[in-house]
Prior knowledge:
By secondary structure, this protein is an alpha/beta fold.
Amino acid sequence: MAEMQGKDYRKxxxxxxxxxxxxxxxxxxxxxxxxxxxxxxxxxxxxxAIGAIADCLNPRSCRVVALSKPSERERxxxxxxxxxxxxxxxxxxxxxxxxxxxxxxxxxxxxxCSDAEYVNFLEDCPKFELMLINSGVLLFKYWFACDQKMQExxxxxxxxxxxxxxxxxxxxxxxxxxxxEYTRARDQMLDATxxxxxxxxxxxxxxxxxxxxxxxxxLLDNLPDHDIALEAIDLPELTKRxxxxxxxxxxxxAKAVF
Length: 258
């Protein structure tokens, strides 16, 4: 199948973003709480999918959480503790750009946790997630997949693009030769944590545009009925003539030259 073109992608994304806004109004109307986890291969396109959702929603009640590696203090805490403080309050949706599943992925493959810590995580994670679900959190878990050939092409693109260069870390480079190890770690994670109440969904991201659309459609289809009409707002005419902006003397104005 040919890669989806930008104009077709934008046309298909527009109604999905409109429905995302309706979903967001439903969250605020009902006080529901939604957590979406984005996991997967390096370069698969987690950030682009998160942006397609977050960019059209109110940032006061849609938060993106992308935690750096744990500090010494955090390493001494209960493993899930640093994630708990970022969980949503009533009416909020939180998008985790990688999550507590770091322990089942990069930490396992790259040797950043012990075998005992890994086994404990696989045992404790379902219990932790059931606690969230039983408290009313709607939990969605996505794992973004892509072929190693495509992954290599995207790494090369990032290396050449100064705007995307920040996306390449030493860990990413070290992990390039461990594609199969990540596959095995993923499958072990799925076996242990694919709950009936919070299933894993794998998203084919070899075509990132089509993958984003599929992921958003799946999320919306698996939420409760969320069709909340826009509140009617009247915009009367101004009672006075519109004013022009005033700039204080002595304060520099930005000037663009094209």
